[in-house]
Amino acid sequence: MANSKSWQKIFKDYKILNHNFNKVPFLLSATQIKRACQLFKETSEKEVRILCKQDSRESRPNIFIENSLFLLPVKNGYYNIIKGEGYIDIPEIKKEVVIYSSKLDFQLDTTKIGNSEMQHLDYAYAASLIRTFMDDPSLVLTIRGRKFTPTFEFMVGKQLIKVASVQTEVDAGYEGKEQIVLIEAKNFDATNIIIRQLYYPFRQWQEHSKKKVITLFFDKAHDEDVYSIWQFEFPEPKNYNSIRLVKSGKFRIIE
Questions:
Q1: Residue 115: what pLDDT?
Q2: Contact 221, 150 (CB under 8 A)
Q3: What range(s) does the DUF6997 domain occupy (predicted)?
Q4: In this model, does residue 208 exceed pLDDT 70?
Q5: How far is CA 3 from CA 46, 97, 111, 225, in A?
Q6: What's residue 1's pLDDT?
Q7: What is the per-residue DSSP string for 154-203?
Q8: What fold characterizes domain 98-254?
Q9: Residues with Cβ < 8 Å from 49, sequence gap 6 or more?
């Protein structure tokens, strides 16, 4: 498993498995990670950003998987190692593909060049698929790129997590008259993702607006022009694991 050798040393150096995770998460700094891994040769074995990128269950190092642990950034240069379920399954959509007619009255040429998450999402928005899925014709693009969270806290099981000024990124955010819709987009068949990618932006924009904040996961199939959308919600905003699926659908856009 990726980075397992580095994390074995980090856990050993700081006796992390001796920690009582039932009380509080283990606080680990980027400085500690660098110190533990300074003698490794490969960049992937000592670069903090690479070591701490664990966006799916399978991308975690073995020591995390074996001990039911996951990692969350909590402020600049600091991470919490937490015992519990950090990920959400992206369920297969078994419903038939819906043929969706673009609301544009002309064909787009530029959207067919390349194969990036952003361009597929932009095409779905230009065709008004996002507005139609959300039943909200007022949605306009207002959020894109990296921003820093305000201070907030939440629970994972009985563990209290405090977050302050963590960098987040949404692939697109749309504001309408009554709601804000945030989208995490992937360009591969993801079976699970870390909840943080939906939860942190949700909490971030909830702090900035009194409008309802909606989180969507968006995926474009590799081998065909099928766009899949899942809507998730957090009925208990301060409970990281309260995430649940609201609705989903698969669409083929016809110009």
A1: 76
A2: no
A3: 83-251
A4: yes
A5: 9, 39, 37, 35
A6: 57
A7: EEETTEEEEE-S-EEEEEEEEE-SSEEEEEEEESS--SEEETHHHHHHHH
A8: Trna Endonuclease; Chain: A, domain 1 (3.40.1350)
A9: none
- Distance, in Å, from the CA atom of 74 to the CA atom of 159, rounded to the nearest integer, reads 13
Predicted confidence (pLDDT) per residue in 4-52, tens digit: 899 999 999 999 999 999 889 999 999 999 999 998 888 888 899 999 9
Angle at 235 between CA 229 and CA 238, to 5 degrees: 115
**In whole numbers, what is the pLDDT of the chain averaged over residues?**
93
Q: Which alpha helices (DSSP H) does the chain contain, by range?
A: 4-13, 30-37, 48-51, 62-66, 117-126, 129-134, 196-208
Residue type, 45: E
Return the C-alpha torsion angle 227, 196, 144, 246, nearest 10: 40
Torsion angle (degrees, nearest 10) of CA 146, 148, 153, 157: 30
Answer yes or no: is pLDDT of 224 > 90: no
pLDDT band per the 50, 70, 90 thresholds, residue 2: low
Q: Give this prediction's pTM.
A: 0.93
Domain spans of the chain, in order of start = 4-84, 98-254
Query: Token digits for 17?
Result: 């498995």
Pairing relationship of beta strands 87-89 and 152-156 according to DSSP bridges: unpaired
Are 143 and 170 a contacting pair, CB within 8 Å? yes
> Burial code of 215-242, b = ≥16 C-beta within 10 A, e = fewer?
bbbbbbbeeeebbbbbbbbbeeeeebbe
Lowest mean pLDDT among 124-128, 170-174, 218-222: 218-222
